[in-house]
Amino acid sequence: MDVEPDEVTFVNVLGACWSVDQAKKLHEKIVLLGFETDVVVGTALVTIYGKFGLVQEAEDVFERIREKNLICWTAMLSAYVDHGFHSKALETYQKMRARAGSGLKLDAIVFVSALNACSSSNDLEVGKQLHADMIASKIKLEGDAAASLVNMYGKCGSLAMAREVFDRLVKLRRDIVLWNTMLLSYAQSGLRSEAVEFLWEMTLDGTQPNEISFTGVLYACCHGGVLEQGREHFQAMLREYEISPVSQHFGCMADLFARLGKLGEAEELLRSMPYEPEFVMWTALLGACRNYGDSERAARLAESLSPETSSSYVLLSGTMTNV
After folding, report:
1. C-alpha to C-alpha distance for 178 and 149, rounded to whole angstroms
2. Of 125, 286, 300, 318, whose CB neighbour count within 10 A is largest?
3. Is residue 11 part of a domain?
4. Cα(79)–Cα(261) distance, rounded to whole angstroms?
5. Residue 1 has pLDDT above 50, yes or no
6. Is residue 129 helix, strand or coil?
7. Alpha-carbon distance 14 to 151, whole Å?
8. pLDDT tens-digit readout, 238-265
9. 83 and 140, same structural domain?
């Protein structure tokens, strides 16, 4: 006699799903057997739909779940954040917050997701509320929670608060993720001098910079238009810190060359780097060709690129010929 699958079976199978079609077929079976409104099975459905980017489907299941617990709410919150539905994510957080008094205990994972949504929407006031809620909920400010808080203040334009939080937390625990988050906040805010000085401060503290640290510094040098300082840090990575440059580092340097009109050096670097240049690196160079009126280089670049992508470059370089 065939044995019907139960809740545990569906949760395990959903966790191993590798395609949308498979997930939807399982969903049909779950509905047929009356398990969709069960919080454990329903949460597994919300999670798998979120994984595949089917946010509406995840939301529909979420709404039908009878008694939602923290894991269920967090799955829906994460789906919103992961796929750019930041306003809905913050609305969901507020609903969770309203239920905190009736037994829904918010944890660090919830706050990390909410802070990430806040960072993307640049809502400083909501970010401050989240910070206060974290303190009230006695969330330990360490690891991802600490870095997300610093990142939120940085993305929302409050570098002073980002630094204040960083200074307070770094005394408790030396954490490279926290250092990099603060450095990137400076770099992405266009504060080149502060980013470069912060790298030096990091080394004095005894925290060894890594690939991400140098991505931040090179980004700052690139957008600050300081070639020699950028070159010095690019060379220091390997010479002083034994860090082999990765694609992003080469991309920052090529962009720096291009922004300063050194188109030949930018092209040479992209062609000689030990990685396949990303699409955005070539488009940045083509944009610089337009800015500096080098239509000949733009057309030559388009012609020399691989057949499967050259049509995109021809369209871009076509604008250069009108310069």
Report:
1. 10
2. 286
3. yes
4. 43
5. no
6. helix
7. 33
8. 999 999 999 999 999 999 999 999 999 9
9. no
Going by C-alpha positions, the residue among 47, 37, 40, 50 that lies closest to residue 9 is 40
Amino acid letter, 270: L
Task: Give pLDDT tens digits for 309-320.
Answer: 555 555 455 555
Question: Do 61 and 117 fall into the same domain?
Answer: no
User: What's the number of domains the chain is made of?
Assistant: 2
Domain termination site, one of 173, 194, 226: 173
Structure tokens at 152: 């939120």
59 to 54, 90, 136: CA distances (angstroms): 9, 15, 29
pLDDT 10s digits, 128-138: 999 999 999 99
The pLDDT of residue 310 is 53
Tell me the pTM: 0.87
Please name the residue that has the structure tokens 């600050």.
224
Amino acid symbol at 216: G
What are the residues whose beta carbons fall under 8 Å from the beta carbon of 222, sequence distance 6 or more?
230, 252, 253, 255, 256, 259
- In single-letter form, the type of residue at position 57 comes to E
Q: Are residues 119 and 47 in the same domain?
A: no
Token readout for 80 is: 């919103």
User: Are 55 and 127 found together in one domain?
Assistant: no
3-state secondary structure of 164: helix
What Å distances lie between residue 177 and 81, 169, 249, 283, 311, CA to CA? Answer: 21, 12, 18, 31, 40
Helices of type H across 122-191: 124-136, 143-155, 159-170, 176-188
d(CA 42, CA 55): 14
pLDDT in tens, 293-307: 998 998 888 777 655
Q: Give the domain extent around 135.
A: 107-173
Contacts of 322 (CB under 8 A, 6+ apart): 295
- Alpha-carbon distances of 213 from 58, 111, 147, 161, 207, rounded to whole Å: 37, 25, 14, 21, 11
